[in-house]
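Work Package 4 report. The design task specified in the project plan requires that, given a folded chain encoded as structure tokens, an amino acid be chosen for each position. We show below one input record used in the internal validation round.
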């Protein structure tokens, strides 16, 4: 393309936009774009207090006013471009106007702030200086200091300027309804609904421009300006949201993490990302150490935890290969095989696919405890529903009132194959039409697809759908509602059935099911017959990278003759020793070798969107293992270097050796870890999970299993549930002086049926392991399925009959 062509194309792009002059600078706006957005896009500052990029504008503070060339004063956040316009942002009239507005907003605020956690990072302070408010010309009867305490937070009504940020963030962005605006003129305030579910994410605190909303976790612990910021990404689920640790030296001159924050104007952090961190680095307090050679000579396999870096996975795979041992990680194994089967027939997508959904879009969440496992993703789905009208359908064995959905279907435990079959029945017409098209085309490359669809349709037509609905506890009404959301008829063409744009988010309940291969075929058949339908298996922690790098074997969950890396086993290489009172533990004493927690490591992971994410340490500490003189190991590389004959000094020196990254780094001409951006999109070809010789499976007769009727559900340890991981010690894991192995979330009905009491400590038997857990009765759970949050249960089975030891 010549320079002239480029110039013409550039001019054409300008004519598609509307001309706007801001302070005599020529700008261009999309039709309907706000003046505030146009100014920001062109580097022009307009002061605001109530506006956040992640929220819809309200014009509550009136600080963003601008002046039109005819002298009119308008709020730029609520003024949308429809025709050419000229505005000014810094006139004398505006300066006087903003000065008066700030004076009103500061009626309840001293201009010289006293003791306040917000001091040093208070937006109100900044705006007072910017608008040149030197004295307070107004007087009002001071509000009483009305302190409202809720979920580790305090709302101070006297300091509130009613910008409404906190309430709008809670409702519009997080997707909860804890906070609301109570209008009453000068006496307006923020209301707290104590009956609503609060995730305790502190988003309301993070967006408050004053000290009106503050966290009791941080109050009076440090001045804001004393804290050093260390950027990184969250390690608690596969979304890996950006954050920064705020660190300083304590009274003993040792570094500590005081809090975690993020860019609150544009993004979100869940409870785990904001609060689940190690304040200090862990010291090695265990004397039951072992040598790597000793362990490898006694074991049959290595077991990987799900939350390892790419570099750790690569080293673990080298260890397994050199020692000729099996490598275990059932979550990654099942996820890989599920993806590979789907990829054989259709294209598995990542989470980016849901961003483009519009009002006719449908998201079906299959078998995932998403509310706690990936809270920010749950909020994203809530925003899609609120702003774009996307329909959310939750299909899960757990009855939850927190799931804000257009349809929630609770099915019987272990009925995943039956649920998949009922979903398949909704697309019978599309399957028949696709088979006819493929048969008429007679293309050789369609033979595999045609065989899948023909076998699937034949099997489906032989099923007793009424029996499946009855046994899986899905009503005919629920199935009809699901059908109407997935299929719709065009006006005047009722004989033509079309489908919505559907995204299946597949949780662990489905791809860890014993029928996961058949479920993958069924969902592939649905996707093949509907080009608007796609499959997105939910990746927990870093299991996608484990699937890419490792040749995995099935794990029966044994503790004996296994070396665990960030996982339970007879030998464990992990941040802290795992202590377990069980028959297994008494037979085989546990041996432990310490490595650093992820929070203090530098490395890389893959996120749910297919990006390469860099992890940075919250702070560096050269005296981690000061209590044990002989224990000098820092990370998995230090432990494995001699055995593997590696000559690199740091873990990040081997990033370029990781197979699926090496080609990518060469293409980008990136030579070392430091040259990587903090987040880089990977090519889908580097991430595709495949297996050789995947054959079409025959469909069996569906036999519904019977259980006790009272079940324990093993939740995936990510998101807010990572709070209970052993490597993150917390007072919540100790109750009445007794160390616990986890938390058992139950409904009121569950407590009545099992004669349990809220906060009671019980011994729960799972297989041959006995766990000491605290019962936590919740108002939002219903039914006879309890949720167990514990990392001591290492089998891939998702459900257990309730058995109290």
């Amino acid at each position: 393309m010549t320079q002239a062509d480029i110039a013409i194309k550039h001019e054409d792009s300008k004519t598609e936009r509307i001309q706007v002059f801001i302070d005599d600078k020529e700008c261009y706006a999309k039709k309907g774009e706000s003046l505030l957005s146009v100014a920001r896009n062109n580097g022009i500052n307009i002061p605001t207090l109530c506006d956040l990029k992640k929220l819809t504008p309200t014009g509550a503070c009136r600080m963003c006013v601008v002046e039109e060339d005819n002298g009119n004063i308008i709020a730029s956040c609520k003024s949308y471009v429809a025709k050419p316009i000229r505005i000014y942002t810094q006139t004398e009239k505006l300066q006087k106007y903003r000065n008066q507005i700030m004076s009103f907003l500061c009626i309840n605020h001293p201009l010289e702030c006293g003791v306040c956690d917000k001091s040093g990072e208070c937006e109100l302070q900044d705006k007072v200086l910017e608008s040149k408010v030197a004295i307070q010309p107004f007087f009002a009867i001071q509000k009483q200091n009305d302190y409202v305490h809720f979920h580790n937070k305090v709302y101070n009504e006297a300091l509130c300027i009613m910008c409404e940020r906190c309430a709008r963030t809670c409702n519009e962005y997080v997707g909860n309804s804890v906070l609301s605006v109570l209008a009453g003129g000068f006496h307006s305030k923020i209301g707290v609904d104590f009956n609503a579910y609060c995730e305790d994410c502190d988003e309301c605190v993070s967006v408050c421009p004053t000290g009106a909303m503050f966290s009791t976790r941080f109050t009076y612990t440090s001045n804001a300006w004393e804290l050093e910021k260390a950027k990184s990404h969250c390690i608690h689920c596969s979304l890996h949201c950006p954050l920064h640790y705020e660190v300083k030296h304590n009274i003993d001159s040792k570094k500590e993490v005081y809090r975690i924050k993020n860019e609150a104007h544009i993004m979100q952090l869940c409870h785990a990302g904001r609060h689940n961190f190690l304040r200090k680095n862990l010291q090695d307090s265990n004397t039951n150490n072992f040598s790597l050679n000793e362990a490898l000579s006694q074991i049959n396999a290595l077991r990987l935890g799900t939350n390892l870096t790419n570099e750790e996975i690569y080293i673990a795979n080298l260890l397994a290969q050199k020692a000729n041992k099996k490598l275990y990680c059932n979550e990654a194994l099942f996820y890989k095989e599920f993806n590979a089967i789907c990829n054989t027939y259709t294209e598995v997508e990542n989470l980016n696919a849901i961003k483009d959904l519009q009002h006719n879009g449908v998201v079906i969440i299959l078998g995932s405890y998403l509310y706690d496992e990936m809270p920010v993703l749950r909020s994203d789905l809530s925003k899609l529903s609120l702003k774009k009208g996307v329909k959310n359908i939750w299909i899960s064995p757990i009855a939850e009132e927190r799931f804000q959905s257009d349809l929630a279907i609770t099915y019987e435990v272990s009925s995943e194959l039956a649920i998949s079959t009922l979903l398949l029945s909704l697309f019978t017409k599309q399957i028949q039409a696709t088979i006819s098209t493929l048969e008429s085309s007679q293309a050789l490359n369609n033979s595999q697809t045609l065989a899948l669809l023909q076998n699937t349709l034949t099997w489906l037509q032989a099923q007793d759908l009424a029996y499946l609905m009855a046994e899986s506890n899905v009503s005919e009404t629920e199935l009809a509602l699901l059908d109407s959301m997935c299929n719709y008829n065009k006006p005047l063409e009722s004989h033509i059935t079309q489908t919505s744009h559907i995204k299946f988010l597949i949780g662990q309940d489905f791809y860890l099911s014993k029928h996961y291969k058949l479920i993958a075929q069924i969902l592939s058949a649905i996707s093949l017959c509907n080009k608007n339908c796609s499959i997105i298996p939910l990746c927990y922690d870093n299991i996608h990278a484990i699937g890419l790098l490792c040749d995995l074997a099935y794990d029966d969950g044994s503790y004996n003759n296994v070396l665990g890396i960030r996982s339970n086993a007879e030998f464990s290489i992990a941040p802290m020793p795992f202590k377990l009172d069980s028959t297994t533990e008494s037979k085989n004493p546990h041996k432990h070798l310490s490595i650093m927690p992820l929070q203090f490591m530098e490395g890389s992971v893959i996120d749910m969107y297919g990006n390469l994410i860099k992890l940075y340490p919250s702070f560096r500490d050269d005296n981690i293992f000061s209590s044990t003189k002989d224990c000098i190991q820092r990370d998995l590389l230090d432990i494995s270097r001699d055995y593997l004959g590696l000559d690199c000094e740091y873990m990040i020196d081997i990033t370029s050796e990781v197979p699926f990254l090496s080609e990518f780094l060469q293409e980008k001409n990136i030579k070392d870890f430091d040259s990587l951006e903090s987040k880089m999109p990977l090519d889908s070809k580097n991430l595709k999970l495949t297996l050789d010789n995947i054959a079409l499976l025959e469909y069996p007769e569906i036999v519904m299993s019977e259980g006790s009727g009272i079940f324990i559900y093993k939740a995936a340890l990510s998101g807010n549930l990572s709070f209970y991981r052993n490597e993150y010690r917390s007072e919540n894991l100790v109750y009445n002086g007794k160390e616990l192995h986890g938390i058992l979330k139950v409904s009121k009905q569950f407590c009545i049926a099992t004669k349990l009491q809220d906060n009671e400590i019980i011994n729960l038997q799972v297989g041959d392991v006995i766990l000491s857990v605290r019962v936590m009765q919740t108002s939002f759970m219903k039914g006879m399925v309890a949720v167990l949050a514990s990392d001591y249960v290492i089998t891939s089975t998702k459900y257990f009959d309730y058995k109290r030891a």
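Residues 1-15, 581-587, 624-632, 726-732 have pLDDT under 50 and may be disordered. Validation will be extended to a larger panel in the next phase.
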